Amino acid sequence: MDEANSTTLKSMGNPLFVDSTARWFGPVERPLLGWWTARRDGAPKSGIVIAPAIGYEYWTAHRTLRVLAEMLAARGHGVLRFDYDGHGDSAGESWDGDRVMAWRQSVAHAVTEARAMGVQEITLIGLRMGATLALEEANAVGADRIVAWAPIISGKRYMKEMRMLGLAVPNSVGRPVADGTVIYAGTVVSPETGAEIAQINLEKLEPIPSARMLLVARTDHACDKLAKYLTDAGGDVRLDALDGAETALDTPTEGATVPIDILDVITGWIGDASTPRQTTAVPAAGASTKISWSGGQLVEEVRALSELGLIGVCGRPVSIAEKGVVVFLNSGSEPHVGPGRCWVEYARELNVRGYATVRLDFSGWGESPDLGHAPGRPYDDHCIAETLAVTSALRRDGHRQVMLAGLCAGAWVGMRAALQVHVDAVIAINPQLYW
Questions:
Q1: By C-alpha distance, which of 380, 382, 367 is closest to 70?
Q2: What distance in Å separates the CA atoms of residue 40 and residue 87, rounded to the nearest whole number?
Q3: Quick one: pLDDT band at residue 5, thresholds 50, 70, 90?
Q4: In this structure, what are the phi and psi dihedrals at residue 356, rounded to the nearest 5 degrees?
Q5: Strand pairing class (46-51; 78-82)
Q6: Measuring CA to CA, which residue among 364, 373, 293, 300 is closest to residue 335?
Q7: How far apart are CA 341 and CA 93, in angstroms?
Q8: If you placed Cys at 76, which of 21, 267, 273, 346 could pair as Cys (CB 3.0 to 4.6 Å)?
Q9: What's the number of CA atoms in the CB half-sphere (13 Å) around residue 28?
């Protein structure tokens, strides 16, 4: 990736270029996707693993966690963001059993991957459910520091909120549905998963993490009792209650903004990487992975598309002649996983039926370079030009049939692009024709 497609951070003094690269890791049969962000001047020995939220907060805070990773990389750390098993781009579904255990294991796999890249110290940063998992798993993975941002303290209270915000899953979905199953922002919560979450109580956490801890609380959701419990039990705890989290957690993605003051506190507490840098490069990431889906298999790889270097997660069938390629466009300001993760699920279903797919991020969205367009907003004009560029690149790669799929703003972009370049189909879901 050249400097034009790197992230430039000037706030730390001299401009430092940091790159993010996709990495498949974890179990071969259920691979996880992560994004490793680091400076170019050697491999870091200080590693930071960022565990995201689940549900709607995963989408609203995506940009915030990417910026946090870039800020920390500029200070000399290597940072791995990742998706849990059954979440985001990783393998599996939220319909699967043992979800909470799978999330915990995903944290452990991410730490193992960071250590495999040569880091000698580990900091866990978690947001919401990720913060809870970081506190619970810190000792097991040997973390040196923890940042727990707005952790879910009571699983019972969290499940009450999820049931109020979620929807009951009807029996018409074509799957066995137990009474009490709800879906929240695309995350299926079965009664079994709900019971597992309800067992969480950080104010009775044992054993207490031996790592240094920073609790970042919202001013409207106090963590005082948790901080006192951890401190009284011998933990090394700092508590900061800060305003601004609502811009990343409570605001829909199309209007969400990065709470930079909170990120400054987190990065300031962690500080610059103190360990010397290695001159050797980190191990190369796997370019592609096989994923099992609906009784079949598909191959996915992360690629830079067109001369703009836009990021796309590209899927293709295994041992089936390709019928065409479907390009899924960003909806709202959500990353390439799509609303409620549906682009991931639709794409994989199409892959096992013989179609290639691309889950695309426009510049300023998701994992693509910003190119002066961040944060991405619905109906940005550059999205049409970028759709045309990617369509042309796919034609040059030999794809004979190219189809565009989008929801709402993404549907509008697809239809506008079809006025300017030949495409074989447009799947326009809820398009705003009057925009």
A1: 367
A2: 30
A3: very low
A4: -85, 155
A5: parallel
A6: 364
A7: 10
A8: 273
A9: 0
pTM exceeds 0.70: yes
Give the residue from 32, 50, 37, 34 showing the smallest Cα distance to 282. Answer: 37
Cα angle for residues 213, 225, 270 (degrees, 5° grid): 15
**Cis peptide bond N-terminal to 207, omega within 30:** yes
- Provide the pairing of β-strand 182-184 with 167-168: antiparallel
Helix (H, G, I), strand (E, B) or coil at 198: helix
Pairing state between β 16-25 and 7-9: antiparallel
Q: Is the model's pLDDT at 16 over the cut of 70?
A: no
Closest CA to 217 of 153, 144, 161: 153
Provide the residue count of the chain.
435
Q: Three-class SS of residue 318?
A: coil
CA angle 40, 45, 46 (to 5 degrees): 100
**Which of 96, 94, 99, 123 minimizes the C-alpha distance to 110?**
123
Name the pLDDT band for 275 (thresholds 50, 70, 90): low
Distance CA 318, CA 316 (A): 7
Q: Which residues is 78 bridged to in the sheet?
A: 47
157-180 average pLDDT score: 89
SS (H, E, C) 250-281: CCCCCCCCCCHHHHHHHHHHHCCCCCCCECCC
Is 364 strand, coil or helix? coil
Task: Give CA–CA dist 386/300, Å, rounded.
Answer: 22
Helix count and strand count (H, E) for the chain: 12, 19
Give me the half-sphere count of Cα atoms (radius 13 Å) on the Cβ side of residue 430.
6
Residue owning tokens 């079994």? 192
Q: Are 242 and 191 in contact (CB under 8 A)?
A: no
